[in-house]
User: Fold these one by one.
Assistant:
Number 1:
Amino acid sequence: MLNWAEMSTKQPVVSKMLVNSLKRDRISHAYIFQGSRGTGKSALSRLFAKSIFCKNRKDAEPCNACKDCRRIDSGNHPDLHWIVPDGASIKNDQILQLQKEFSYTGMESDRKVYVMEDADKMTANASNRLLKFLEEPGAHTTAILLTENSQALLQTIQSRCQILALQPLHAGQFEELLISEGLPQSSARLLSQLTQNYEEAMEISGQEWFAKARKLVVQLVEVLETRPNEALLFIHSQWMPVMKDRELQQLALHLLLLWFKDIIYLYADRPDSIIYIQEKDRLENSLRHWTRQRATDSLQSVMEAKRQLDQNVHPALVMEKLTLQMQR
């Protein structure tokens, strides 16, 4: 079970601030945990909630064994509410339901905590409703908003929260950690660019999808270089059947983005920065087909495709548009 000592090795500054607030019993009514994917926002929220609810806590450290701790781990603590996007966004009805739940007294204690994942994906109505909720906080209510970009939240919401920025692990350090766990360097380097969460990295590494996605990226680039007129057919017959949901599509696009990033590294005479280290010969061959500007344009097109997926644009349309842009 994760404890504050372990969390302090990953997020020392944020951990120290939260531990001090627990020891002094000065818990804010609202927090924003900001950090890129894999920095441990959810794990930190769960640990913080345990420390709030645990009746056997020593200083800030929860016991990880009592009923409250076990319920939080299993996701069924009655006074801890976890809100996630309904589809592509967090909707007004979800905040309305949250307000209704919080109008009742706590089931197990006088405290209530809610954690909102991807808080920046709230609709305008949901944001305004949450703002009113934050303006009149309950005496023992704590809100934790998780986001990769706090600037996407209303300024008035930001001003009512304590913003804590989680720092990413250095990719090189994380790569070394994965290698020490037995992963080959080629996989470890790629995974260190996809996530900085150890459990997620190990899970992805063992999935058949990961190997297929890497292969498809190389094949797509090869088709674009040698048979560009067949690229759309490749997308529909090879790419889309494997990328069956938005999460896989996002990860696959990130792998494609890293390929173009590697081409730019070669143009910048930075071969040691290459991510696809086992494909170095192919990458060097790609320089004959991709100018630096074209590789940069393609990288930006992939980033735009990732944003469109987040905005719930149909995946097939996103990939068709991206393919046509890369063909130019």
Note: The mean pLDDT is 92.
Number 2:
Amino acid sequence: MRTRLLTAVPALGLAVVGVLTGCGARVDNPGAAGATTPPACQTEEVPEGDPLAAPPLPTQEVDPALAGLVSEETTAQPVVLGVAPDLPPVNFEKDGEQRGFEPDLLRAAGERLGVTIEFQMLQNPLAAYSAGQVDGIAGFFNDTKERQEVGSFVDYVNASVSTVVAHCNPLGIVEAADLCGRKVTAAVGTVQLLQITDAAAPGSLIALCEEAGEEPPVPVQADTSVSAVQTLSAGRADAMVIDAPIALNVVQQSAGALSIGYTETLPNPVGVMLNKKFDAELIPALEQAYQSLVDDGTYTEILEAYGMVTGHVDEITVNRGEA
């Protein structure tokens, strides 16, 4: 079997590192060991769906019309995507394979094209991609103009962010403006940390609060998403901002210690990033394969099986990011 020559891409700077939604660690029960489950809140927003459900994944039939969009050279070798370890419900390892709504969607699209999609779990997928060791990266990446310089995006959802708070939301944080003057934690390398530390960042909470005549959030920087959860649970922060799919897992694994204050769907597209060498053939083919999943309901079925109910789109796009 002929080996596909992977193409190296330019070194990725901090702005590209920020596309990772987490730092490669599953967040398991941040509450104290042996703690009793707090009583339910009457007004609490309770996430639905199981981020670790990994429902049965039916094999998709090859669609002749879609398969005709890719060459034999493309189908002869698998497309290898780097993934960070365990970011449920986006991706996680179960029974020796990658599951989650992103791997499930990618497999389904690939099967309709007759293209094999494989996943390589890496501690630093971005470094491996920059070195040309993988063909792309899966991991709920925000599509931006800067990132389009090193890869092309097949955008399949809109971004959504959640604010995670203490049980029963004692401070009444129900919208972004409620974070003004509050201690807010986010992980290094995430878009959310930029939004609480950089007034010029798209969606900056600093700018929002200044426009409202309020004090900006007080950033509490965390090394990882796990340490951000620990910071919130220990009371060293009033809230944590994180991508909505990851917040689902955080809250459900907290044994009732944490709640979701609010979830906001944003216009920013999120997608899978692939090497630009695929621009001529595989990228537009995947765009059409994803669209077929949207059109027949498979897309919604996969997303909702993992509790992903926000950010759905009717039209799959390529490189839609404008920020």
Note: The radius of gyration is 20 Å.
Number 3:
Amino acid sequence: MQSAAITSSEADFCQGLVRAIYKDSKSQGVLLPTPPKRNQFQESPYTVLEDWLDEALEKLEDRQLLLNLDEFEKIGTAINEKQISLRLFDELRHLIQHYDQLWFLFSGVKTLKEIGPNWSSYFISVVPMEMLYLEPEEARELLLDPDPDFTLRYNEGIVEEVLKLTRCQPYLLQLLGAAMVTQANLHHTDTITPELLKAAIEDGFIKGEPYFTNIWTEFTGESEEEILAGQSLLLKLAKGEQPNKNRDDISEKALQYMLRHHIIEEIDSLYDFEILLVKMWVKQRANA
């Protein structure tokens, strides 16, 4: 579930949840009860949701249902903006505890603790899992054999260079992979050369602008002051400079925030970007 509409009200959330389950189950050949009408959710969203789930789960028989709430931080934002009440947390906790066929996957870029105290207190039983990078062999397979009909080939050293640039980060691997396919098609070739990789990187910076900008604006600090300090630190690192040892409290908080979110890392008391491709993007920004 990723639609912005589902966080506009509790009725929209419940209706969106039901519609997502119905549509995805139908695509798998499982026909569930027809979703209730919108006005029914508006009158009593959680009762209508549970009544429908009771019928739907009977149709699933012994099958399990995994619900992925992607970018779940948006729920926290909707609660802070009073679009949704804390009753939603009560309902989600109730579903987790009492519906054995339902499994929930909350995926996002922040921990429950970072989103706010309500999340941690309501979802004590939730098990956090940090997912960062693929193993090198998994990343190579993604580049070399993503599809049975894949015919693209790489000059010697190209694959290893892509792994180095992306640190096997799934999104960036797919971003560069797609950009290399685009470049191969533009040049009517099935072989990626260093020149085409260079062009693919530039194309990736354009296509991946939202991702890189999100790092720049959302993961350089928490407050406006920290964000500015964090951006300044990234610009220094991109130029090969180290942060000031006698940095102020704001800069220290920004640095720790970026360490916690794997934007930068510390090795032997020296700081650098975790991902080279992100460093290259920031360096371009510094030179712009």
Note: The chain has 15 helices and six strands.
